[in-house]
Amino acid sequence: MSLTIYGIPASRAVRPLWAATELGLDFVHVPTPFQGGATRTPEFLALNPNGHIPVVADQRPPEQGGEVVVWESMACALYIARHHGQPDGTSITPANAREDAGALRWSFWVVNECEADALTVLMHRMVMPEERRKPELAAAAEKRLAVPLRVIERHLQQQQVRGEAYLAASRFTVADLCVASVLNWARAARSLMAEHPLTHDWIVRCIERPAHLAAKALGEV
After folding, report:
1. Burial 183-219, CB ≥16 within 10 A → b, else e
2. C-alpha to C-alpha distance for 217 and 8, rounded to whole angstroms
3. pLDDT in tens, 182-193
4. Which of 19, 104, 154, 156 could pair covalently with 77 via S-S, beta carbons 3.0-4.6 A apart?
5. pTM for this one?
């Protein structure tokens, strides 16, 4: 089997890159930027007709279905964890139904409840040139984010009571990877993070993992 990941770390492609790095997989990274037309070539559109990164291409034996192509960043990360990791209770791969449900639930949750507003905060608090930032958009996004952040803060409190330091287990799993990759964008809202200290500390623990730092450092174009 061979695994190929298309995309660049400075994008949602960091999610499958991080997952593969956490698992210590031998994979091929094809740096594919989202600008400049690289995702609009006939070759790339044959992989993902939406013209977006990331894409994961998994060459499997014929008896396992042959080539599998996955797009959508959360699906890519979840796929890698499920089909390339071992459910042994030590890796990012869910080890049982409860952990698997947690990975699915929290990944869909963060996309639906948090991603758009977290990206707005990042862009208008930090990334965009100051003259192009619209603080009112960031403020409105932060107000909306306060609602889901209360949900995850409460969950992390409950996890502490259970003796579990992460979202779905006592260890870091793909659930944490998927959710932290989004909520890290919201750290630009410092007052919001101060109001949710367990969430902030959990985000920092996740993104400071060596595998995340290594995935972010992969060559870009």
Report:
1. bbbbbbbeebbeebeebbebbeebbebebbeebeebe
2. 10
3. 999 999 999 999
4. 19
5. 0.95
